[in-house]
Amino acid sequence: xKNLKGVRVMLVDDEPHITQFLEFGLLNEGFDTRTxxxxxxxxxxxxxxxxxxxxLDVMMPGMDGWEVCRLLKKNLSNVAxxxxxxxxxxEDRVKGLTTGADDYVVKPFSFxxxxxxxxxxxRNQFPALYGEVSFGPFRLDDRRKEIRYRxxxxxxxxxxxxxxxxxxxxxxxxLSKSTILDQVWGYDFxxxxxxxxxxxxxxxxxxxxKEHRLIRTLRGAGYRVDLP
Length: 228
Prior knowledge:
- The longest helix is centred in the middle third of the chain and has 15 residues, at 111-125.
- 41% of the residues lie in helices and 21% in strands.
- It is built from eight helices and eleven strands.
- It has helices at 16-28, 39-49, 65-75, 90-99, 111-125, 158-169, 177-185, 195-206; strands at 8-12, 32-36, 53-57, 80-85, 103-106, 132-135, 138-141, 146-149, 152-153, 215-218, 222-225.
């Protein structure tokens, strides 16, 4: 991943030997890296540094990783959070993911695995860093604001583009209307959430998805893209 210049990674852990080890490895991979020894420092640093990825310990004095995760997701427009912790019980994993974490790595860990997980989060949440990215029959080119479906360029409005990109990148995940509104229209959108239904209908027409096999509706839950 040395060709991904300008990717910002923030390390949050109260154990200096871990942050030093990770910082050395990530700098060697070409990442712009910052470290924070506690939760409050991490929140303040993140607002200034605007990281693409945060490697976040859970058990820290003062503000723990759960609260840091919640605040980062609330205050940053787009950030990938990978929880790094010795807590490996299922309930801890569930808590991390429901708090907003995008991935969960248990200590002890391999640096190569962590690097692979960072790459996976970047491809999913920051496709523009890679140019074109493929997801099944879709090819996304965020720099050109263009999506191809089965090798045909879709004629999309800016909002349709952002909505389809968000659905495709998060394929296999059920996304509620409120989540889609926050991520596509923005947290300060004051309109009716039924606008999501309208734009989903637009996309289905352009994808010839008459039977809703590609963009599925899960009544009472939201929408999910299923890739063939």
